[in-house]
Design a protein that fits this description.
Blueprint (H helix, E strand, L loop, with lengths): L12 H27 L1 E12 L10 E9 L5 E8 L10 E5 L6 E4 L3 H32 L1 H5 L10
Parallel strand pairs: 3-5
Antiparallel strand pairs: 1-2, 1-4, 2-3, 4-5
Helix pairs in contact: 1-2
Length: 160
Amino acid sequence: MTRTNSGVRWVHAVPIAIGLAVGIWMFHAAVPRLITQLTGVDGRFGAERCVWGEPDFEGERTMTCRGSFTAADGSFSLAGIRIDGVFDERPQAPVAARVSGPDADHAVQLDFLTTFAPMGLGLTAFAFPAWALTAATRDLLTRRSPAGLLGGAGGAPGGG
């Protein structure tokens, strides 16, 4: 016997919504960071104030810092900006970083793993909603097609 529908029901709306929300949130965080890493202005970030953050998924605490950024070509400096990245201890010397431009409010470290990890999680979060929405759409189209309405594969009574 062949399966007549995918098994997607209205009760799947909550996991679909959660998957979409998590995926969008992860990409919202990662894409601007990736763009800055690829096209930003090179320079150095000097940490001035660092605070311990919450433990990460491995249970390790890291520092989040604010400080100043100076472009590599010396064309501009930014004071009091935060850096998207974490440190095991307060950096004693300036670290390589990039900003989106002279009006940036944060710098990013040149660590692509911290960008691709949220993107991978976002793609994973999209997997169930993508399957469910594809299956539900296929079921709806099958029910609305002439073959689905008549119950036969030929589209006409008697297998035409």
